[in-house]
Amino acid sequence: MGRKLVIGLLVIVMVLGCTHCSGQGEVLHEKKLGRSGGVSYGTDYITIGFIQTGKESDWRDANTKDYLNTFTKEKGYNLIYIDGNSDSRRQVKAMYDLISQGVDYIILDPIVEDGWEDALKLAQDSKIPVLLADRGVSADPSLYECWIGSDFRTEGINAARWLADYLKKNGRQKEDINIVILEGTEGASATIGRSEGLQEEIRKHDNWHILASECGNFTQGEGKEVMDQILEKHKDIDVLICENDNMMFGAMKAMTQKDVSYGVGGRVITISFDALGEAFENMIKGKLMASVECNPLIAGLSEKVIRQKEAGLEVEPIQYVEELVFTYENADKYIGDRKY
Ligand code: AHR
Questions:
Q1: How many CA atoms within 13 Å lie on the side-chain side of 112?
Q2: Which residues lie below 8 Å from residue 56, measured CB to CB, with a gap of 6+?
Q3: Which among 55, 273, 289, 302 is least surrounded, fewest beta carbons within 10 Å?
Q4: Cα–Cα distance between 113 and 308 in angstroms, integer?
Q5: Cβ(222)–Cβ(250) under 8 Å?
Q6: CA–CA distance, 201 with 146 (Å, rounded to integer)
Q7: Over the stretch 16-58, which tens digit does the pLDDT of each residue have?
Q8: pLDDT digits (tens, 9 = 90+) for 203-218
């Protein structure tokens, strides 16, 4: 109702000085009153502030594209896209800015779980529904509408179970197995969940030993750097688990440079998460042995929730996306259907 009231002329969308914003948030908009009493950006449009983590991985790029392609003007949305630039404080500040602008909804993909309580409380008091997408927060669930994303703990469990099956199939179930883990960003729910799931399963095998577990921040560059350092200290790695594909691509480069053989027929068993197109190419080549899917295409589910809210319907508080485990044995069968 209120978003139909035109009260002024033009305003520049100002979000954190906006040097990293892109999409429709960067252009000039007509100034109108939003439902929550603040500034909205077009008659009949639903204004959505989307706070992204940054650009740390190819998964992230696919996820951003999905949101930009889903919440379009043609479909009746004004999307204010904010690149968190891998900086939590920047994300929190963006949240306060969006609240003061009186957007209709906020979709938040938090870099880390902690530190969101106050901003979420203010959004709730300002009657702006917040949807969490991809990663979660440690704050009380009553402060947000719902969380849409992956079951990260199950992903970790699935990765370790694939390893157990593979070792068994190859008669290596009783051997001592030395594992290296490259973890994602500290405090991120993708890291917390995957690490928990992995540890839970690893503990079940007395002969599995973790040689090193280090943070590679979900980036390819840090994956390479951290693996370079690990290879200086450890020559006897049997398994490398990277908590995303991009860190694995970096780590593969480090192993190649140091003549460490990996993949099918090599010394190091390679497992990662996301199941990107490039991961499929590597699985087909036998370089990557398994990639546990993490589906970035969740904007459609977020839109569905917003439509439900607009219709006054109840919303499911936790919505997991369906995910599979892909391997060097089945990658060629699925590569043609991959969308990211
Ligand atoms: O939160 C999802 C994770 O974040 C993906 O696994 C990773 O690639 C991304 O950056």
A1: 13
A2: 86, 185, 217, 218, 219, 246
A3: 55
A4: 26
A5: yes
A6: 29
A7: 333 333 333 333 233 334 454 445 445 589 999 999 999 999 9
A8: 999 999 999 999 999 9
- According to DSSP, residue 17 is labeled G
Judge whether 90 and 110 are in contact, CB under 8 Å.
Answer: no
Pocket test for ligand 1, best of 64, 215, 274 (most atoms within 8 A of CB): 274
Which residues does a 6 A CB cutoff place in the pocket of ligand 1? 56-57, 59-60, 134-135, 190, 218, 244, 273-274, 294
Count Cβ atoms below 10 Å from residue 121 Cβ, excluding itself. Answer: 13
What residues pair up with 133 in beta bridges, in sequence order? 148
Q: How far is CA 137 from CA 50, 62, 186, 302, in A?
A: 16, 22, 13, 17
When pLDDT is averaged across residues 162-177 and rounded to a whole number, the result is: 98
For residues 244 and 60, give the distance between their C-alpha atoms in angstroms, rounded to a whole number.
11
CA–CA separation, 185 and 198 (whole Å): 16
CA distance readout (Å), 133 to 55, 63, 93, 128, 194: 15, 10, 18, 16, 17
Beta bridge partners of 28: 12
DSSP class per residue in 124-159: HHTT--EEEESS--SS-GGGSSEEEE--HHHHHHHH
- Bridge partners (DSSP) listed for residue 91: none
48 within 8 A of 13, measured Cβ to Cβ: no
Residue 150, both tokens: 């992956």
Q: Which of 98, 96, 93 is nearest to 81 (CA)?
A: 98
Q: In what order do the strands lie in the sheet with 6-12?
A: 6-12, 28-33, 39-40
The answer to whether 286 and 328 have CB atoms below 8 angstroms apart is yes
User: Best mutation site among 134, 153, 158, 198 for ligand 1, i.e. most ligand atoms within 8 A of its Cβ?
Assistant: 134
Residue 339 pLDDT:
96
